[in-house]
Amino acid sequence: MVHMSKILLIDDDPGLAGPLREYFARFNLDLHAEQHPLEGLDHLRAHGADLIVLDVMLPEMDGFEVCRKIRRDSEVPIIMLTARGQEIDKVLGLKVGADDYVTKPFSFLELMARVEAVLRRSKMGLEEARTISLDEMEIDTENLKGHSGSDEIDFTKREVELLSYLARHPDRPIPREELLLKVWGYARNLDIETRTVDIHIAKLRRKIEADPKEPVNLITVRGAGYRLILKA
Are 29 and 120 in contact, with CB atoms under 8 Å apart? Predict the structure, then answer.
């Protein structure tokens, strides 16, 4: 029997779940929908999910708070649905732990492409070095911890995956498109506008650089991409 990935939709639009469930079923995805955020969280705890599609605008508790609650004890991939033109929604969604976002109104084809990409990435299981050594920091990739002197810094799984991919290719700058493909799992021919890489690079610099505005570990090679400078 073919395994069907379980998708949890948390969105208070009553007209979305039925058509989306039928569409996802064509791609071997089993969609369960909840309109209230607390019921969505209860379902996640009771039944789990392979991926969550989470609307920002929800009754009683917005999608950002739902995402924060999920991230306290789960790394399940999350795609957030944001309002058109609300760039701050997209940025905040990624900051609180979402893996990607889709802007409303969206086509089912676009959402399906994002879902497949995130699921593919979550199953890739990138091989990671046990430790990444930078100028003044050691990063334990298994425990998602960085140590600089007596200071300990927490990293997200996605941040460590990004650093690990850069660490495996220290001799060349890695283009943004390659990071989207190899770390996030986006197909090369998928024309999707996203600031995901830029936002994660900025977050990492705040954690690993003494001066994020003058990085010495995670540098930008103009016109070519990003390089991680490992400790010699």
Answer: no
**Rg of the chain on CA atoms, in Å:** 18
Which of 121, 86, 108, 103 is closest to 16 using CA atoms? 108
| 20 burial level (CB within 10 Å; 0-12, 13-18, 19+) | buried
Q: Is 164 helix (H, G, I), strand (E, B) or coil?
A: helix
Residue 67 has pLDDT above 90, yes or no: yes
- Judged by DSSP in three states, 169 sits in coil
Mean pLDDT over residues 29-53, rounded? 95
Parse the chain into domains and list their residue ranges.
Answer: 5-124, 131-228
Query: Residue 38's pLDDT is what?
Result: 96
What is the DSSP track for 51-104? Answer: EEEEES--SSS-HHHHHHHHHTT----EEEEEETT-HHHHHHHHHTT-SEEEEE
The CATH code for residues 131-228 is: 1.10.10.10
One-letter amino acid for residue 129 of the chain = A
Whole-angstrom distance, CA of residue 199 vs CA of residue 202: 5
Q: Is the pTM of this model over 0.85?
A: no
Q: Choose the CATH number for 5-124 among 3.20.20.70, 3.60.20.10, 3.40.50.2300, 2.40.10.220.
A: 3.40.50.2300
Q: Name beta bridge partners: 153.
A: 146
